Amino acid sequence: MLGLNYKLRDLEKLGREIHVGLIGCGQMGRGMISQIESMKGMRVVATADLHPALIQQAYLKAGINEHSIVLTDHLEEAEKAIEQGKTIGTAYSDLVTSLPSVDVIVDATGVPNLGAEIAWKSILNKKHIVMLNVEADVTVGPLLKQMADASGVVYTGSAGDEPGAVMELYDFADAIGFEIIALGKGKNNPLNHGANPSSVEVEAKAKGASPKMIASFQDGTKTMVEMNAVANATGFLPDIPGMHGISGTVKELPSLFQLVERGGVLANKGIVDYVNGVAPGVFAIISSDKEEVHHEMNYLKMGDGPNYVLYRPYHLTSLETPLSIARAFFHKEATIAPWQGLQAETVAVAKKDLKPGDHLDGIGGYTVYGKLLTQGDSAAVDALPIGLVDQNVVVTRPIKQGEIIRYGDIEQERESMIWKLRSLQNQSSNNSSPKNKLEQPRPFLV
What we know:
alpha/beta; seven-stranded parallel beta sheet; DRL_cat; Asp/hSer_DH_NAD-bd; 3 domains; SAF; six-stranded mixed beta sheet; Rossmann fold; Type Iii Antifreeze Protein Isoform Hplc 12; 18% strand; single chain
């Protein structure tokens, strides 16, 4: 089978290209536009953002001639311009998801409700959808995947995003028969549950990033959500609520991720976790029950065993997204998707004391952070998923800082799209047989 690079070159030789529609022109989206402009057989033909001027700047920085950029909110005008080889910018995501000439949609908004709506409409329009929006994926991804399968299109997470990079190691190790003990990622900064847009303002400005995004990294939500996506794809679970989050070097990982009785930290195998000290990499801890395999691993200088570490020291985020676009287009395959269904849940925890009438403000804000639980543990306490939190959610009883927020603690002023999809997903799940790991949830610890 030809590699994606050869397939893209061949496509271009035929005078064709994969037409990409991008929604969200922030840091991730802008980088992806520039990267794709350097590729064969692929082009971002349409981009939507609330600020069309950002789209124009992104196209210009990618080397696209200003006369080839058309800003429009009209479908017929946009489609005609694409047929003429031009690129489109618009303020309306619906225009991009409905363009007949677009083959693959990429959601780079980072907003759970918006991402869920984009994926839903992309699938309705028979387009492959690549999610650079893990928050939406862990909330309603199982439903969206089921819908995409039924529609004959691909629903997938992105290569280069940490869950996709972890999945690359998992697929490799699983395919050649290793026992996989743990899957994980590095965390770039110390865990600070109280981080908010004000406390990270200076750092965000220096990095040219959104304060809410930086706060979601520091308060741990992003890490929880990313490993939630890996759990739903593999069936691996957090060993304890919130995961262990130990500190260590790459060399130390095989000994740290041992069962407790062997001097490690684990109560179970087949877990997801994160480590302070190995960022920006991702890892898989593997082992074998075969003497000759251990002999070979020792000869290859992979360590003394019984555990070994596979480590990928980088992940190029949206710069790798084109690989998932091409894989969906050519092979009709996902890079990472919730194949195991809802195995874990990133639940909302109060970032400060909350009182009746308070509005929750979402991921990376002032009111909540995320904590990863098994799905069974989450269901046992009726916990509110972090992806359902937005400014339409109002607190109805006093909630202490550090307390898990439950469905019974809140009410909605208006039902958003992601809430509707989650309700459909819950109904679908209730009508199907539970998976083994959900039938016997691990003991709930806070």
